[in-house]
Amino acid sequence: MPHPIMFDDADPILGKLREIALALPEATEKIAHGRPTFRCGKMFAMYGGARKGETKVRRDHALLFIPDPGERRALEQDERFYVPAYVGAYGWLGLDLVLDVDWAEVAELLDASFRQIAPKRAIARLPAAD
User: Fold this and answer.
1) Is 66 left (phi over 0), alpha (psi -120 to 50) or beta?
2) What pLDDT, on a 0 to 100 scale, did the predictor assign at position 127?
3) DSSP annotation of 84
4) At residue 55, does pLDDT exceed 80?
């Protein structure tokens, strides 16, 4: 039995997230487990999910991503970030996108996540990381 769809295509937050994620080289979108996921071969981001231990409480407007290892500790100290259910065990973090979203920050988080999973040919097409 397929997962129910847990997002609205007309969601403006998802629209902005798509714009940023799909601008990355070779990035694609695939619906998995009822949610939009962004991939370049492997998954580098997901829209929506739950906090680890709170799987009954949906966070439909959240970005799940793989943090840059050098930034992880700082992000974990920021109360806006959380360990998501299921993928958190693999090093992912979540960020709710409902209040005062800094889209430049979101773009940086997506870029860092993408760089960790994308093939070298796709990463070579990106501007140099700061």
Assistant:
1) beta
2) 86
3) B
4) no
